[in-house]
Amino acid sequence: MTPSERKREKPLASRAVQITFLIVLLVLWYLATTRWKVSPLLLPNPVLVASDFWTILRTGEFIGDLRVTLTELAIAFAISATSGVIVGYVISRSQYRIRVFEPLFSAIYSVPIILFLPLYVLFFGLGPASKIALGATISFFPIALNTIAGFGYVDKVLVTAARSMGASDVQLFRYVLLPAAFPIILTGMRMGFTVALLSIIGSETIASLAGLGHRIVHLAEGMEMAPMFAYIVFVVAIAAILNTLVSTLEARGRRHG
Amino acid sequence: MTGEAAIRVKDVSHQFGEEGEARHVVALRHTSLEVTRGELLCLIGPSGCGKSTLLNVIGGLMAPTTGAVEVSGKPVRGPMPHDIAFVFQEHALFPWNTVIENINLGMVFQGVPRAEREARARRSLEAVGLKDFAQHYPAQLSGGMRQRAALARALSLETGILLMDEPFGALDEQTRMILGEDLSVLLSRTNKTIVFVTHSLGEATFLADRVAVFSARPGTIKEIIKVDEPHPRKPEFVTSEKFTSIRNELYGLLHEEIRKTMAESGMGTAATGSVL
């Protein structure tokens, strides 16, 4: 066996373990609802969930809620990405500002900002505005922090070298600072995107008028467990697709950066 | 000394921080020096003696606290990309660019017209023996090749002066030797003025037309030793009596200063003193 074959086999083996794990989980779920008589009010039959999931997809009834959630996400992310990069860049230009703001932002980032949701609802209402504001706030910090890290810690010798060769301020930014910071900012954006998604769906389950999170809670309150589980599966799938998409974009951006 | 001065250092002193501050350091005191056009001058001295500071002051990367530097008759007030190119200890290549992109970017910064860039890049890559590695990224090259690429970037700028700050400092002995020989050949062809900072007595002796030995901090030039041997220098030069005697002379001059530096930093006690 050549080393490259061995390398390829390893992820295949771990992938098999992952899939087996999920299958075992599904089987246990099935057995719990059939053989072990767990109440369908607590745990619906997975076959029923699958058929409801199929119905949701087929009828397209999810479109309205999906649109609300994705619109909130898109606006929140646009706000946090723009402001995070601008604020991060301005801070990164001075060692003093880095010393002041970096620990401050790190500290705020570690606070569960979702606790302020009631405040956001008071300010922005029950509709999408409060979700957007909360998602933008939460995702601002990883983006700003990574932008500070990206621009603030560019290898000094590269800057000196560029200056010694006569680079102007614009050239320094375009050819040295930006390519050095870009991959780190992209990582910040991926992290920001993920926390925005989590916080928006999370806050929809707590206080909202529409959206995927709202739909799940609504079904739970009506004791419609099978469709609720189907929606959970749907949200998990959407989140997985979005995260894969963003990770792919990040990897591609790193290559071309 | 024949020939005109390419670099004139006039009574330069430099200190970091203000007097009374904890981080106040006098790095360089009252140093004067003339470097003749086409000559290779090595700066050698104990750590912290200010030889890199002097190089940065000459290159306009640092403004001296007092004194002045003239390059080709012009006062140095900042980087002079048309007169001076640098090679740094860490190769300072942009890791996201290939070798050829790095070379081109240097010329973009310097303002070389697009039409000239390709030929210049090719010439400088050939000069350092890297023309088959133009499309490689720095991370794909060995340490020695990275320094060659950095040298090619500096050569493509076609400046009269090359300032090299321990360019081979991070490389192993064999690689340094080969790069030193190649540099000597290159020099004899290009007639550049070079100031070369090094820690290595052998490297200084092998490469330099003159070696300026620095005193311990606060550093200044203690003595200048001439190495009267034409470029390109042959490998046999290393084993010659002339080489050995110059190297020993440098060692004698330097030894005392290194002792002083170590005593000052509290390392020159009896225990570590026996190591030297």
- Going by CATH, the architecture of the domain at 37-65 and 77-83 and 159-273 in chain B would be 3-Layer(aba) Sandwich
Q: Low-confidence stretches of chain B at least 5 residues in length (pLDDT < 50)?
A: 268-276
> What is the residue-averaged pLDDT of chain A?
90
Task: Please tell me the total number of domains of chain A.
Answer: 2
Give an overview of the whole structure.
The complex is a heterodimer of chains A (257) and B (276). Chain A contains 10 helices and no strands. Chain A is mostly helical. In chain A, helix 2 (46-59) crosses helix 10 and helix 9 runs antiparallel to helix 10 (225-256). The radius of gyration of chain A is 23 Å and the shape is elongated. Helix content of chain B is 37%, strand content 23%. Chain B contains 8 helices and 10 strands. Chain B has helices at residues 51-58, 99-110, 114-127, 143-156, 173-190, 201-207, 241-264, 270-273; strands at 5-16, 25-36, 40-44, 66-71, 74-75, 84-87, 161-165, 193-198, 210-214, 221-226. In chain B, the strands form 2 sheets. Chain B has a 6-stranded mixed sheet with strand order 6-7-8-3-9-10, sandwiched between helices. A 4-stranded antiparallel sheet of chain B has the order 2-1-4-5, covered by helices on one side. In chain B, helix 5 (173-190) links the parallel strand 7 and strand 8. The longest helix of chain B has 24 residues, at 241-264. The radius of gyration of chain B is 19 Å and the shape is globular. The relative contact order of chain B is 0.16. The interface between A and B is medium-sized, with 17 and 22 residues.
